[in-house]
Each structure stands twice: as C-alpha cells, then as structure tokens.
Amino acid sequence: EFNNAAGQGDGPASTDDALYRTLVERLGADRLSSDASVRDAHASDWSDAPRVAPAWIVMPRSPQEVAAALDCVRSFGGHVVVQGGMTGLAGGATPREGEIALSLARLDAIEAFDEAGGTVTVQAGVPLATLQQYVEAAGWFFPLDLGARGSCQIGGNAATNAGGNRVVRFGTMREQVLGLEVALPDGTLLSMMNRVQKNTTGIDLKQLFIGAEGTLGIIVRLVLKLVPALERSSTALCAMRDFEQATRLLKRLRAGLPGLSSFELMWQDFTDAAAQLTGARAPFDTRYPLYALIETLNADDDSAVLERVLTRALEDEIVADAVVAQSLEHARQLWQYREAVGELLAALKPHAAFDVGLPMEKMASFVANMRATLAARYPDSTHLFFGHLGDGNLHLLSGPYRDAATLHDVETCVYRAVARAGGCISGEHGIGVLKTPYLPLSRSAGELATMRALKALFDPQRVLNVGRILDA
Ligand code: FAD
Q1: Which end of the chain is more exposed for a tag (fewer CB within 10 A), N or C?
Q2: In this predicted structure, what is the pLDDT of residue 15?
Q3: Which pTM does this prediction carry?
Q4: What are the UniProt keywords, alphabetically (predicted)?
C-alpha cells in the first residue's frame, strides 16, 4: 500500500529532493511515500476545501519518529500539514500547495490501561471507535461520540476539541483528556502525561494544544479519563410545536433524568431530508416543526423514568408527541435521522456546513431569520437546521453552491448574523482554513494577537499547519 514510486498526481513529487532523502535516512524508506494514489488519498479531508495532493506523505511509527520528522522538515525550511483521520469539516487537514503530509495513522497503539484509576493511555492515531470498543470490553466507557467515529482519530478529536452527541452530560474532548504528549516544531517531545484527576501544579499546558488544530504541536500520545460502563441506554424521539417547548423539555429532562446524555434537536426540514435520503419512514403520522432525539446512559434501566417524564411533558403540553424505543433496533431506527448527516453532507456538496454556537435565547429567532433569508436569496439550494441543543450548538447545512463567490456570500451572511446574536462561528468543528477570514467576528483583537504570539513562541519558523486558524 505504501511505496516510493515517483508520484503522478497533480504537482511534482520529487524524490530527488534533499529533504526527502534525509527523511528516508532518518526514518527509513517505508515511512515515506510519493506514490500518486497515496498522495491522492491524502489530498483532502471531509470538507469542501479544494483538493491538493501533498508533496509526499510521512507516516511515522512512534512519537520519537514524529519529532524527528518535524526536526528534519524544519531544518530544511519545509512545511507540514498534520493528518489524523481526515474527517474534519474545516479543511485543516487538507494540504496547501507544497506541504508534506504527516499522517498519524500508524501511531495506533493502545499502550496502557489503568483498571483501578479508570484511565487509558493511547497513541494519537487510534480511531475513536476502536478506543470505544476496547474500553467497553474492559467494563469501562469513553463518552466522546460522533458520526465519524469509525475514521476520526483520538488525536484529531483532541486537536479539534471535538464535541459530538454527548456533550450535554460529559463535556467536550477537553474534559476527557488528563495528559498529553506533543511533538513540537523544534523537534522536541513535550511530555505532559498526567494521570491524576486533580492537578493544580501551575499552568495547565495541555489545554493550549487541545483545540489548537495542530498549529502549535502534534499530539502523539494521550491519557484519557474513563467512566464505569454505562450499559443501559434509553432512547426517545419527541415532537414539539415550537422552540420554547424544546427548551422547557430539556430543563425537565435535566432535572428528572440524571442519565441524560443526548438532546439532539432537528428542525422539520432536516428530518424530511434525512427520511427522504435514507428511505426511512416519517417519525410520526403528523409532521411537526421540531424533533428532539433523547438518549440516556446508565448502569441500570431508566426507561420507566424516561417514560414518566415524557408522559408528564405530554400532559403539560410541552411535547406534542413522543415515542420511546422498545428495543435496540427501534433505538437505531430513531437515531437514523440524526445519523443521516454524513449522507446529507455528501448529497449537498459543494455545501456550506456551519456549526455555530448561540446563546439559547437567540436560537429560535436566528433559525427563523436565517431560514427566511437563505430561502429568499438562494432558492435553488437546500438549507437544513439541526444541532446539539443541550450545549447551544447549531448546525446548518446549506448547498449545493457551485461557485466560490456565492459560497462566500452565504458564509458572510450567516457569520455576521451569528456575531450580531453574540454567538461564535464554530462550536466544535474548528476554524481550519475555511473559517480563518471570519475568526475576527468571534474573537477580539487582543485574543487574536495572543494566539499569534503563541504561534510565534512554539513555531517561529512556521513549519506546522500554517494558515490554519490564523491567516497565513
Ligand atoms: P483530521 O480531520 O485529520 O484533522 C483535523 C484538524 O486537526 C486538522 O487541522 C489537523 O491538522 C489536526 N490534527 C489531526 N490530528 C492531529 C494530531 N494528532 N495533532 C495535532 N493536530 C492534529 N466533529 C464534532 O466535534 N462533533 C460532531 O458531532 C462531528 N460529527 C461529524 C460527523 C461526520 C459524518 C463527519 C465527517 C465529521 C464530524 N465531525 C464532528 C468533524 C470531525 O469528525 C472532527 O473534527 C474530528 O475530531 C476530526 O478528527 P480527525 O482525526 O479526522 O482529524
């Protein structure tokens, strides 16, 4: 799968290059590829950022090799793009012209498991689903979960501070990480492999790298916090007549169901499109403006409690209709609308995919105004609203848009409205390359200057992920 045949992809892939030869000497020939098909496979993440084949791909097998590769590239004045599972939606892992892709795919060892303390030590390239299955088999649970679980890597999840379906209960990736090891652009390994929950020994440096999207260093190892196995889950789908009902229901569930782990909101246009695409039946006989997908996770069965809370919510006219899953298969069917997002993303390409954060009291008016504005301006495109309501994260999938100028107009329109509402332009997918022009709408001049100062401190020669988060 991995060889050194001269590349035939777009742009030259010269293996005569002195840097290439030095990397081969330091790491071994089987750690590099300039093969056209391999370069093509590394030309883009899941976003609509234009595909660019990297000059070559480096696939180190250990943290030390990652550090050595960085040291080498820096000393030759080269540029590296870090690639995890390449499921990012902000173009961060998509190469820019001339960049060398450094893939973490071979750093895939689960190194240690601490049964007593409930922690696991992993390398950055372990896919999220592999980690979830590993700890579940040992009677523990790793709470981060998202649709791309089969391909995204735990290092990529930390680099993007991924959120996902269970943030309402467990928080984002930031809250799951106890320790990190990072390869810095100067070729050193910065070890912060803390394993204890409470640690107040000065500045929490690891947090600088979580959510930094690979701009300050490459995450190579992580210590993750686990929770005891939560084997029982209950799932329900509720229909609501308006957004106020949704917020009242969320409050009820938070008070009455300590196991509440997901509260996914889907507007009618989203569920209609998801049902049409997947061939699923409509969730209820009547169509409603809003649907909430609810999940609880517990050691014991709490479906009776969920049913009681929902019965009262029906009596109090907080929900218009509700169905509680009666089996695992039924739960899977209820989730299929929300899980259709991957297919919808593909179907609406080239699209604008937004994941904005909004104050809860602005959410309903924002959606109503945006739906009307976008429908009027771009009647030929589809606009779908959904989100992780429990944490104020709203997704909007809008497309297709065939030309870049229109796409830019749509983005400007949405991001300006987000700024006016006091929100942020990314709740979880990050800034990558696609959102750098809009970052000043979400962060102050002082914050941007501090980010630039940190970049200059860790990466003065601008080796790593240049042009991500901050403009090139
Ligand atoms: P990549 O795409 O490879 O990289 C993402 C960024 O991190 C890039 O800038 C890259 O350079 C950098 N990077 C990657 N690995 C490292 C590393 N080891 N060290 C330093 N930098 C690194 N995201 C959510 O938050 N919530 C969701 O619910 C969600 N759902 C999704 C559903 C689908 C179907 C898809 C396709 C994506 C979804 N995403 C979601 C986005 C994506 O899965 C996440 O951003 C994920 O965390 C990216 O991980 P990755 O390994 O694929 O990273």
Answers
A1: N
A2: 66
A3: 0.92
A4: FAD, Flavoprotein, Oxidoreductase
